[in-house]
Amino acid sequence: FHTGGNANSKGELSNDDIAALAVVAMSGSVAEIMAYGKASGGENDLLELQNCFRRSEEFIGAAKQQDLTRWGALTSYNLIRNNFKRYEGLVEAFKEKRSLAECVAIIEGSTC
Hints:
Elements: H1 15-36, H2 43-54, H3 62-82, H4 84-95, H5 100-108
């Protein structure tokens, strides 16, 4: 994931940005675990999340980083579970190499 557009003029990320990026960072691994029972990869997402923690406006210690990572995983799980039909539609759209507009329509519920 890319974080460039979220930073303030000093290149720092707000608490809300960090929380949102934790969800994004964890969503791929969570989806893999839900589908296959394990996740392969995801290390780069965790490294990028670590970089986000370093760019936070406020210092985030190790315990809070761990809490935010767990919260991101739980939130990702809940989002996927609560929108599973859309998620499955999006997975199929990716497999079929459908357009970005079609993928967005699936997420927004215009097409399922």
